[in-house]
Amino acid sequence: MADRVVIIGAVALGPKAASRYKRLVPSAEVTMVDMSPSISYGGCGIPFYVSGDVSTADELKTTSFHVVRTPAFFETAKGVHVRPSTRAVSLDRQKKEVLVEDLNTGAQDTLPYDKLVIATGSSPRKLPIPGTDLEGVHAVSGLDEAVEIREKIQSGSVSKAVIVGSGFIGLEMAEALSDMWGIDTTVVEITDQLLPGLVSPHLAEMARRDMEENDITFHFGEKVTAMEGEDGRVTKVVTDKRTLDADLVILSVGVAPNDGLARDAGLDVHERGGIIVDDELRTSDPDIYAGGDCVVVKNLITGQPVFLPMGSMANRQGRIIADNLTGRHKKFPGVLGSWAVKLFEIAVSGVGLTMASATRAGFDPVNVHISQLDRAHFYPEKGLMYLDLVVDKKSSKVLGIQGLSIMRDALVGRINAVAAALPFGITVDDLQVMEFAYSPPFSAAMDIVNSAGNVAANVLDGINRGLPPEEFAERWADRESGDICFLDVRADADSGPLAKRLDAPYWKAIPQDELPARMDEVPRGKKLVLVCNTGARSYEAQVMLDAAGIKDSENLQGGMASARMLGTAP
């Protein structure tokens, strides 16, 4: 065990490791240093502080029993020394010393250690363009900057804001500015969708449409080239396609691991950035541990190193590091990348690989999209949930799942259930029989995750030939060609006015339960696009048509519910 432990970084992992180690070894001398005057706060809560959902900055620093985590709190309640506003300048691994500098006075001194923990986190990526140093341009790098942003908003000096980037923080900040403060908010994204790399194009489009209904403007496929200002303050954001007025600019273009201290000390660092650690979170120096946003860890699905800046991971790793400082040899096996984001009244959540990332990783994946009520159809309070299930064609192994729903907690609960099972290499067969607590107010008897497994099994068996929901618009645009017919198999009670008002050769309404008796009415020699509300009855219709020898059909995945969410439903 170490008598002297120095921890560099005091936001998430650092305080967790320090407090745990002092509980295990009360006699040890534990010191945390951090460059910021603010320590031990919930960084992921910053957008909710900016919005006003969290009233004060101190609330992000409080314990669950409402005590603010200050340096004095750690000293008295935890027995941990804290040095805020202090920069770790360099490491001398031979002498086992950290050279530190007081950022207020410039004074330098050394901290000896027996064991060292690096928890230096990450920093926002910078755009190499003019104007990023103008007043009013922020990267939300920490709590102190968040306080500055909120003070500007509360002063009434912000009427137009531009968010650069549509990842978690960018979208949460967009909601905060528009919903709570009524600021005219625009998001500029260099890729062609929001949440790039995290969800399929159709889930991204569903989320975009919902946010636009809440007065957020999006510009995709645009590159920000400059910020312009007057009197040192930002007034415009220039892209390669337009110029936008702005009183406030939030840069949310990703983060990079703060690995410079480790790199300069000769520790092993990944070529793409991030300190390399083993499964005990030990660096290439056996007396130095590292975790949180500054390290790379193993992706449990691909087996490859991955950089995953998540506060939840940092907290879990902090406890493991503390245990291993005592010689307990606890393991951190790797990550799946579970995430969730609240966007106005909906949630989007996921775990594991998307179709695109699975393909890049060398799998031969298929994406199955379904829509279904999150609980019993007869229960009054319910909502549709939209899920993408990504599976490997050869092994039927589940690679990932992502979803969107107005029933936010219910969605995250489903994603978490799959996340708990993914490390065990579950297959589609396992998903079909996964057990969920059932009661009509909470779920359907056949839970939507079970249904996703069922649909995936049918797709892999070739008996459900699906049309991805984003391709429905292409079929609809081709409806006058004479080569295609939409077969609406919804019951009369829920098919709506469309089936009744259409009198066209490209649309035929035959309820699924009437299809066997009316098979002679089904158009021959045309591509049939089968539609119902969610894709369940249209799948049954496809099986019936196959049995009748009519095999040129495709089933709209997610049904008209998904098409409506995408804005492609006629």
TrEMBL record:
Domain Rhodanese: 480-568
SMART domains, per the entry: RHOD
Matching Pfam families: Pyr_redox_2, Pyr_redox_dim, Rhodanese
Keyword Iron-sulfur: no
CDD domains for the chain: RHOD (cd00158)
Cofactor list: FAD
Keywords recorded for this protein, A-Z: FAD, Flavoprotein, Oxidoreductase, Redox-active center
Family the UniProt entry places it in: Belongs to the class-III pyridine nucleotide-disulfide oxidoreductase family.
The protein's name in its UniProt record: Pyridine nucleotide-disulfide oxidoreductase
Species of the source: Oceanidesulfovibrio marinus
Taxonomy of the source species: Bacteria, Pseudomonadati, Thermodesulfobacteriota, Desulfovibrionia, Desulfovibrionales
